[in-house]
Amino acid sequence: MSDGTYTATVDRIEEGIAVCLLESEGEVIDERRLDAGELPDDCGEGTVLEIELRNDEVVALTPDRGESERRRERAQSRFDRLSRRPDEER
């Protein structure tokens, strides 16, 4: 993985390990497993982070609260649309 700053989403936390999916141009390109204690405060599953890599090591994690909220809202909107009965008015 090249040095740089990437967008990452905390996909899941299992047994104290946070699985983060790294993205480039909207596509998942890598996965990083971090000790959940390394995450910034109040970060959990679904949180979007900016993750900086140097020499294949994580050197910075910064939560992107705005993007996290936008993604939650889009997911909720999709769920709401899919849960409507076909005969319901839009």
From TrEMBL:
Region annotated Disordered, chain positions: 62-90
Q: Name one Pfam family in it.
A: DUF3006
What is the name of this protein? Answer: DUF3006 domain-containing protein
Q: Which domain of life is it from?
A: Archaea
Q: Where is the composition biased (Basic and acidic residues)?
A: 64-90
